[in-house]
Design a protein that fits this description.
Layout (H helix, E strand, L loop, with lengths): L1 H24 L3 H6 L10 H18 L6 H10 L6 H17 L5 E5 L5 E5 L10 E2 L58 H9 L7 H12 L18 H12 L37 H9 L4 H6 L1 H11 L8 H8 L8 H10 E2 L9 E9 L4 E7 L5 E8 L3 H15 L9 E8 L5 E8 L3 E3 H7 L4 H20 L2 E2 L8 E4 L4 E3 L6 E2 L17 H4 L7 H16 L8 H10 L12 H10 L10 H5 L13 H16 L2
Parallel strand pairs: 4-8
Antiparallel strand pairs: 1-2, 2-3, 5-6, 6-7, 7-9, 8-9, 10-12, 11-14, 12-13
Length: about 650
């Protein structure tokens, strides 16, 4: 049979060779067929044998050699199934959704007989064999698999359930990298990083950081309190490996080691260190403020040590020199707690009334006495009582302005003390355009302020003690109610020519029974250190301001009057005790030192100051009215109509 095939192949090859030779020697295939008489080139026998061999090899390649079915099945099993990209994407999506749904289920990392680790769902009965394997993302690298003759195709394999199936003794166990039992098909071992990704979103499974914390506590020598404390997976010892190898030779596979997940209630937490904040330096200040600090000859080391304090003072005094920061401005303007209680606010609203007649007819001959950020103060004559009064006019349009007006009226209307200005009434006035303002009517004092008196006259120690005692009496009335004035300064202390001293302006007064405050407010020379440092302040803030007012009478001006920046910086860092002049008496110096203590908790209370011997001298009020008349004579003459 083979000889016949060879002869047929030779004949066919010879005929095809003749045709090719004819085509190669003639340019046109049709002309060769029309001229059969054309001479052909002679061919040697060696050339014909080569051509026949080539044709024989080509025919053998074209003929398919059939393989046995067993070989085909083995090759099909070894060949990985090709999946479309869409199918792979859908598989990954299903795996993600299954892991999200199984957040409450516990996962176990169980080593198999081949040394791989497989994720399993905990069935809850304590038996690892009944636990179901969880589909993990397959590894990208190809895993070699060899199947036995009686293997089943991958499509027809049973559901993936981890069951213990011992092999017969006659057969040897397969190597670790191969899978011999086709009935129990195993998932390719995933990477450790991929397995941790699945456990990352599981709340019941402790995270990698928590496991690290457990290991740290073990190394530190701390014993775990719970019996089910986490145990690290350790490699098998040499003795255990020998036992496993012997059991594999006998056809008996050892039971895989189970490392249960610890049921810890509260994980160990390591306290985090606070992130270091960006430290400010003197160079970060605006150039204009740096030049002021250098001209004032402030200590460089002290400025570097208290750079945050210097920044707060600079921002409080020179806001325009800094770039605008809306968040900082909002936080600095708002205070966490209101000034007044609801009772005081309601009382202030009830006192405020609308006039029945034209407001211009209520007061006559009003002349401007002073103005500021709060409003304007006029001297006028009441048409009904025919008395001279002081009328304070403030805007009443925004919510903040309304709140401040109700608060001030509520506080000052509740005060009835000889050293506090007397309040008469308040009116709500609206002009033709509908713009509202509040007119507060107070007692008129024939005199002036302490600031004017300090600049105009050099007081002796005895008269300064009298002025300090009268201010302390007014503060005692407020502090007994747990009210803090918070804007005590020389321009808010009025002096009458009769020798009476009264406290005015309750716009920043606050009820401290609601708690301490942290906002920095007031006037620069009289602000206490705790406000500058943004520390909680209370009633003791008025004691510091009182000490500065009394010190102003000795110095004929506020301390460090050259610059408010220097005064505030010195007050917050080293204090003002070194500014007390030598001409002050021994008792006066001790009293001032009690007021000018930087720490507010160690500062004297108003009762302690009133009991001081400096204020309890005899005859300290003698001659004070004559001094006030000489100082404020010009003001009283100009006020007479």
């Amino acid at each position: 049979m083979n000889d016949n095939k060879l002869t047929k192949l030779k004949i066919s090859m010879s005929s095809s060779a003749d045709i090719k030779n004819q085509e190669g020697h003639t340019p046109n295939r049709i002309t060769n067929r029309t001229n059969p008489s054309q001479s052909k080139p002679e061919r040697d026998s060696s050339d014909e044998e080569c051509d026949n061999n080539k044709k024989l090899v080509k025919s053998q390649k074209q003929t398919k050699i059939e393989k046995p079915e067993s070989v085909k099945k083995q090759q099909a099993a070894r060949r990985p199934q090709e999946k479309s990209p869409m199918a792979v994407r859908n598989e990954h999506h299903k795996m993600k959704m299954s892991h999200r749904k199984s957040k409450s289920e516990k996962l176990l990392v169980v080593p198999t007989t081949s040394g791989d680790k497989v994720l399993r769902k905990d069935s809850g009965d304590g038996d690892v064999e009944n636990n179901v394997e969880v589909n993990a993302r397959p590894n990208k690298r190809k895993v070699k698999r060899t199947l036995s003759k009686g293997s089943i195709d991958k499509e027809k394999s049973p559901p993936k359930v981890a069951t213990k199936t011992p092999t017969p003794k006659n057969k040897k166990p397969p190597p670790k990298n191969e899978i011999s039992n086709s009935s129990e098909e195993k998932i390719p071992r995933p990477k450790r990083t991929e397995s941790l990704k699945h456990l990352k979103n599981d709340e019941s499974q402790p995270s990698k950081k928590k496991l690290d914390n457990h290991s740290r506590t073990k190394t530190a020598g701390k014993k775990p309190s719970d019996k089910n404390e986490s145990q690290e997976m350790k490699p098998l010892d040499s003795e255990e490996l020998d036992v496993n190898l012997k059991s594999q030779e006998n056809g008996i596979y050892p039971k895989p080691q189970v490392h249960p997940i610890p049921k810890t209630t509260t994980p160990i937490k390591i306290p985090r260190q606070p992130t270091p904040k960006s430290k400010k330096t003197f160079k970060d200040l605006p150039d204009s403020i740096k030049r002021k600090c250098i001209s004032l000859k402030l200590d460089k080391d002290l400025m570097e040590q208290n750079i945050d304090v210097l920044f707060r003072i600079s921002h409080f005094l020179y806001k325009n020199a800094f770039p605008k920061n809306p968040s900082h401005a909002k936080s600095s303007k708002t205070e966490s707690k209101p000034y007044a209680t609801p009772e005081i606010l309601n009382y202030g609203k009830s006192v405020l009334k609308v006039p029945t007649k034209n407001p211009k007819k209520l007061f006559k001959n009003d002349t401007l006495a002073g103005s500021g950020g709060y409003g304007k103060v006029y001297m006028a004559k009441d048409t009904t009582t025919k008395e001279r009064v002081a009328v304070k006019k403030v805007p009443h349009t925004t919510d903040k302005q309304k709140y401040n007006n109700y608060s001030e009226i509520g506080f000052v209307a509740s005060c009835d003390h000889p050293n506090i200005v007397k309040f008469y009434e308040a009116y709500l006035i609206a002009d033709k355009k509908g713009v509202e303002e509040v007119w507060m009517v107070f007692q008129y004092l024939h005199g002036g302020t302490l600031a004017e008196a300090a600049r105009a006259f050099k007081f002796i120690d005895r008269h300064i003690a009298y002025i300090a005692r009268e201010i302390c009496r007014a503060l005692k009335f407020l502090h007994d109610k747990e009210w803090a004035h918070r804007d005590l300064k020389s321009s808010n202390i009025m002096m009458d020519i009769t020798g009476v001293i009264k406290l005015i302006d309750f716009g920043l007064c606050a009820d401290m029974s609601e708690g301490e405050r942290t906002k920095m407010l007031g006037s620069s020379f009289w602000i206490p250190p705790e406000m500058i440092k943004r520390e909680p302040h209370s009633l003791s803030a008025d004691i510091w301001s009182l000490g500065v007012c009394v010190l102003e009478l000795y110095l004929m001006g506020p301390p460090h009057s050259v610059s408010s920046l220097k005064c505030m910086f010195c007050a917050a860092t080293v204090g003002l005790a070194d500014v007390i002049p030598e001409r002050a008496s021994k008792h006066a110096k001790s009293w001032l030192r009690m007021c000018l203590v930087v720490d507010p908790t160690k500062r004297a209370s108003i009762d302690t100051l009133l009991e001081h011997p400096w204020l309890n001298q005899n005859g300290i009020e003698e001659g004070i009215s004559d001094i006030f008349k000489s100082i404020f004579l010009n003001n009283t003459l100009s006020s007479i109509v």
